[in-house]
Amino acid sequence: METKSIMIVGVGGQGSLLASRLIGNVLLSQGFDVKVSEVHGMSQRGGSVVTYVKYGDRVNSPVIEKGEADIIISFEQLEAARWLPFLKKGGHLVTSTQQIDPMPVITGAAVYPENIIEKLKAQGVDVVAADALTLAEEAGNPKASNVVLMGVVSTKMGFDEEVWIKALEECVPPKFIELNKKAFALGRNAG
Amino acid sequence: MKKLMLGNEAVARGLYESGCRVTSSYPGTPSTEITEFAAKYDEIYAEWAPNEKVAMEAAIGACIGGARAFCAMKHVGLNVAADPLYTVAYTGVNAGLVIAVADDPGMHSSQNEQDSRHHAIASKVLMLEPSDSSECKEFTKKAYELSEQFDTPVIIRLSTRVSHSQSAVELCDRIDNGVKPYEKNAPKYVTLPANARALHVKVEERTRKLVEYGETSELNKIIDNGSKTGVITSGISFQYAMEALGDTVNYLKLGIVNPMPEKLIRDFASKCDKVYVIEELDDIIETHCKKLGLEVVGKEIFGFVGELSQAIVSEKILGKKNEVQTFSESVPVRPPVMCAGCPHRGLFYCLKKLGVMVSGDIGCYTLGATAPLSAMDTTICMGASISGLHGFNKARGAEAEKNSVAVIGDSTFLHSGVTGLINIAYNATNSTVIILDNSITGMTGHQQNPASGMNLKGDPALAINLEELCKACGIKSVRVADPYNMAETEKIIREELAKEEPSVIISRRPCALLKYVKHKPSLKVDEAKCVGCKQCLKIGCPAISIHNGKCVIDHTQCVGCGICKEMCKFDAITD
User: Fold this and answer.
1) Which of A149, B112, B133, B156 is most buried per CB count within 10 Å?
2) What is the reported pTM?
3) What ipTM score was computed for the predicted complex, to two decimals?
């Protein structure tokens, strides 16, 4: 099988590490060769962060370059626009509708673009947008919006729901599992 | 059993399986998790040392004492530990000694892009370079064997993409051969000139033997695809080359990057019409090939700056580029910022207001240099804030002393700020040093340190009293400020700057991300009172923005620290 590439993008602190580990475990359980590349350190402090997940018969490079991603999962609208160049023609973009102003917007040095999702669609990009933050709050904690998005993206990846739930149980501490299962289900419904 | 592991976790697994017993490190991205994962094995004693030099010396002591020992650091950490490295290279080991050093091409979280292979060459130490997590574990195990076989410390060279990528690792059992006997052996371990002269001869002999070993070692691997084009590479660059070029070229993948083989490289090159050297950062392999009289293509097409990738290899060698779509409008940048509730924010706002020269240091607080606070003038290396301020004040005199401060975190202060403070007291400048004590090593992800009251294993430990330490260094004026109280903090800074003596201000408040720190509920904006003056935006809090002319607080980020409330002249921000 040809290598598939998934990018998870967002703002440092939004929980992309859990999301990439979850997908990584799903893929490993399906017998794929998997590589997951994370960024730690300074850029985690509220900066634009990106995680790469690649799988197939044999994965070499752990990083994804422009025009290579089959799926981009974005935790924030502006980040979806920022990382668009990495999406392969015909790839899927799954994004949360959440907006977080970056510092240049807060200080007035730049403007947050309006109607990003509509504009992406108008450009011909296949976009699925979900209000992950509200759904996560419905599940019981706004921090679970990462798992809501995993629910959404699970509909684009074609593995059985049980496979995802099992991986979730491996990645999340037992006391948070029910909350996360609920968040995942809400995302899957929205997908 | 196969498990998905970070390269760093796989190195730790290699330590476990090799029977490593003692680990001492100082955290530094991208190396930090190795030691954190090692600490999870009960069989391995693991500690955070105050700095990399201390860590390496502790590991050297343990290896002389007969236990397989280890230390890890980032590339710049090896500069701090270079002093012991260059001499343990002479003494050799008793039980095996392995050192992991993680480079950061692309500077994701570093102040420079140095190539650690130079240290291996200069210190004449064996260096191995893995290219994925599986090799991280296998090379670590091999490193212990080679360390004991050739009587040498061994460096494992990692880079950000190897350290922080997860891939599958096969788990094996631990083999622990216990602690070797210790025998006094002064000619080997006491490096008096007479002994060191004899040891240097042995080092040169060892290098010759290691070159010979590398000619046939399975660590250096040829993949012959029957092509007339050859690629010589190592580490993560091998993965980029494989992805871009597949089986259209032959590969010589060097697992041993110092000392490099000679005959193996000559033979490989002799079967090719054209040979590329693909390596990140400096031209170490390329220079070696050219020294052997081989014609190779490397830095002239790849350059010395930043990370490589499959796209770069593909573009430079095949002339291919991917089709790319871009968003129709310009996308504002999103640089890293201090977190909502960060205790450093109030302090840096005071410094900005005072307009002083700020001699900075390495840590989360380096973000004080970014807009809108922009309150930092210099950042060189760990500890340089204090020693640099002393020099700045010696150069510029009394007026500068009243208008300049050093800022340094608690962990960085204990790493290498203390000696600078002693210099200020001893060689007398009326410098003002601010220790940003957030009770943790923050930037690398919350590691304990000698002032935090806990050790790496999570047990209670002695907590160095920073006030007493500064006084013992000869500083008489030592005061504590709460950076959440900006008015009081500003007053203390003004008073200390005015004094005709050196002083230390400890700006003390735990990191807002620490689990034990209780957050207050999110603050709210009284829209009727908010006039949209944007005064609250001057502190650069990511939780505050302006929408439709009114200030808005993001309740998912706000931890109720109250700094913005202090900024608002209209009492529009409330609990």
Assistant:
1) A149
2) 0.96
3) 0.94
